[in-house]
Amino acid sequence: MADVAPSGKTLKTYYDSMYELYDGFVGTSVSEVSLTQQMMKTVKAAVLAGCSFGDEAFPIIRSLMYMDGMVLKGHPEVDLISSMGPYLDEFATLIDTTTLLDKEPAADWKSVGKNRPLITKTTA
């Protein structure tokens, strides 16, 4: 998504932002954390790292905002991120990981061990 792949301090700042944003996020209900606000903070961090979003991204973002609102009204205690786990895992098998940026070793992550693992079986 970036015109120029972020590197050095920009990449480190981006990863630090993502770790901070999502530390403890898995396992929280939609009534505890606004997915819309979380997504907007994620987009902001990506833009600051040099990423750009084409026109095709905005209908997806808008759809996720609508989903957030519907879930908040209909099932506010659901952990939507954990419920999406199996679909995210399936998506991960479909992407070309050789095109992704190299990540820092897990040992260097300051938030490792703080996040709860994804729950693969939910009642939602």
Q: How does the SSE layout of this entry go?
A:
Blueprint: H1 8-22, H2 35-48, H3 57-74, H4 80-83, H5 85-94
Low-confidence stretches: 111-120
Order of helices and strands: HHHHH
Largest sheet descriptor: none
Which structural class do the helices and strands define?
mainly alpha
Distance between the termini: 32 Å
Percent helix range: 40-55%
Overall domain count: 1
Q: Measured on Cα atoms, how large is the radius of gyration?
A: 15 Å
General form? globular
Helix run count: 5
What is the number of beta strands?
0
Question: Mind explaining what this structure looks like?
Answer:
This protein has one domain. Helices cover 49% and strands 0% of the residues. The chain contains 5 helices and no strands. The longest helix is centred in the middle third of the chain and has 18 residues. The relative contact order is 0.19. About 8% of the residues have low confidence.
